[in-house]
Every structure is written in C-alpha cells, then in structure tokens.
Amino acid sequence: MKRVKRVTRVAVAIALAVATALGGYAITDAAGAQSDARLGPGLVHVDVGIHYSRFSFSTLKVRPGTLVEFVVHNDDPIHHEFIVGDESVHARHEHGHEASHPPVPGEVSVAPNDVGATFFRFDKPGRYLFACHLPGHFAFGMHGWVIVAK
Fold first, then answer.
1. What is the pLDDT of residues 112-141, one digit of tens each?
2. DSSP string covering 10-50
C-alpha cells in the first residue's frame, strides 16, 4: 500500500511540474471561471470537449509562437465541427454548407461520439474565433475565442 501511495504522489508531482512548465491551461469554463495563465510558446495539446452542443470552454489564452493541437471529443449523437482562424476563414464557413472538412490546419469535422484533431499556429497577437458553423450550432452558442498575447 505504501508503494502505491508513493507512486501516486510521484505521478501527481510530475503532472504538476509539466502543467507548471506549460503555463497551465488558460481556459474559461462554462461557469465563467478563468485563469490568466497562457499556454506556449511551442507545441501544446488542448482537449476540446463537446457535450449538449457546447464546447467545454469558451476562452483559451496562448502566447505568440504557439502551435496548438486541438483534440476534439464529440460526445453528442450529432455531427459537429471545430473551425479556428481569422475572419476570412469564418466567412467561408458561416453558412455551414460544408458537410465535412478535409485535413486543413484549423478545421476538423467530428462524427457523433468520435474524436478528431487539427493543428493551428498562433503567431500574431489578437483574437481568433473558434466555432461550429453547422446549421444553427453557432447561434446555439458553439463558439469561443483564442486570445494570443504575451
């Protein structure tokens, strides 16, 4: 029993050290709780949950020079998409005419109860919208912001 507790304490210490080194997840949850920590720079991994046609967070903060791997977990019985980018990207998608997306940085379609992934590099400071543009999903609240700042 002592060995299990020791191993658990070591695992927790390692997890905390990694989280501290990465700056933690700067995410605003559905309840509005927010951290000022920023991810990056470099490669970071962010899990994006979808449940009841809602993303698991509404704000993500990163530093310039951050490459984010978004791993999108669709726990709904319907299709969703995760699109992140500038205004021109969202202008192309806002009417939800594309049923699925080819492997393009910042765009992924996720089937019901499935997982998809995409990468996006945030080099310039600013605000980048992420959203699901399938019909009615954006209006229902499936959108948020990636804030890039030093």
1. 999 999 999 999 999 999 999 999 999 999
2. HHHHHHHHHHHHHT---EE-TT-------B-SEEEEEEEEE
